[in-house]
Design brief:
This protein is of the alpha+beta class. The chain has a domain of 146 residues. A hairpin with a 4-residue loop joins strand 8 and strand 9. The longest helix has 22 residues. It is elongated, with a radius of gyration of 30 Å.
Length: 268
């Protein structure tokens, strides 16, 4: 004679099955980019200085900590870049109108893939057309400071990019590099090299001349070509020159000699 299971037993068995399904699902959840709330003692902010530094990074903070020590290891969780903000100071003798600071995410030792680079901005780039549309009241006066913040929206975008590029959710170190500094007189310090405004085009921020370079007229001296990053030598920001053609030059000299002798014979 068959006996029917009691309602209490059926409910109990159903609860056990649901619990097992949830446990298996959680066990299979990808762990690559889950944010840990447990503080870890291996976060590092480093700063790459240039030989000339009119603007310098002097402090950093995030949503949870008012002071992240630069150059020293500190403890924080995997969400430590949320609300990340740096403070820069104008150490020059000119008013600063724009600053770009790169955040470089270096790969682990042995990983040859290129690092991801994101940027923090104070105003638009001083070598792009939109620089003319900047808020001219937003400047960093001599001796004053300003904050550059990674917004919540940009932080979420950055997290997605890092995940797509194969990074772990636990970002341990960030390198800060001042990439661009724009001044009120139109000059720009870019990757440690100084560029001045082309006086022939005083209202065009894309027209700059390398300090100490020849007068305008030689296209390779203009920063407008720097917008093509493939043509940049990152050590000195010198544009790549076209390869020399010695054979063509020799042929041209021969043609000139031929014309000269032909002229002399005609006169004779």
């Amino acid at each position: 004679m068959k006996t029917k299971a009691s309602p209490i037993k059926i409910v109990w068995l159903s609860a056990v099955l649901v619990f097992m399904v949830l446990a298996i699902g959680l066990a299979r959840t990808p762990e690559r980019f889950q944010v840990s709330s447990t503080p870890q003692l291996d976060r590092t902010l480093s700063r790459k200085p240039w030989s000339v530094e009119p603007v310098r990074v002097i402090a950093a903070k995030n949503k949870k900590k008012a002071n992240l020590e630069i150059g020293k290891t500190f403890d924080d969780d995997d969400d430590w870049l949320d609300g990340f903000t740096i403070t820069v100071i104008n150490n020059s003798d000119k008013t600063v109108t724009a600053v770009t600071v790169d955040m470089i995410f270096r790969r682990e030792p042995g990983d040859t893939r290129p690092p991801v680079v994101d940027s923090l901005h104070f105003g638009p780039s001083p070598i792009r057309p939109e620089y003319n549309l900047r808020d001219r009241s937003k400047v960093i006066n001599v001796g004053h400071t300003a904050d550059l913040e990674l917004s919540s929206q940009n932080y979420n975008i950055l997290r997605n990019i890092l995940e797509q590029k194969g990074y772990s959710s636990s970002i341990k170190r960030v390198e800060l590099v001042i990439r661009e500094v724009g001044f009120e007189d139109g000059s720009v310090l870019r990757s440690g090299a100084l560029w001045v405004q082309d006086l022939g085009h005083p209202d065009d921020p894309t027209r700059k001349i390398r300090a100490g370079a020849k007068p305008p007229g030689i296209q390779r001296n203009h920063v407008s070509t720097l917008l093509d990053r493939k043509a940049i030598n990152t050590k000195g920001l010198l544009l790549k020159r076209s390869p020399r053609l010695p054979n063509a030059r020799i042929a041209l000299n021969r043609i000139h000699l031929f014309i000269f002798f032909a002229t002399q014979m005609a006169i004779a």
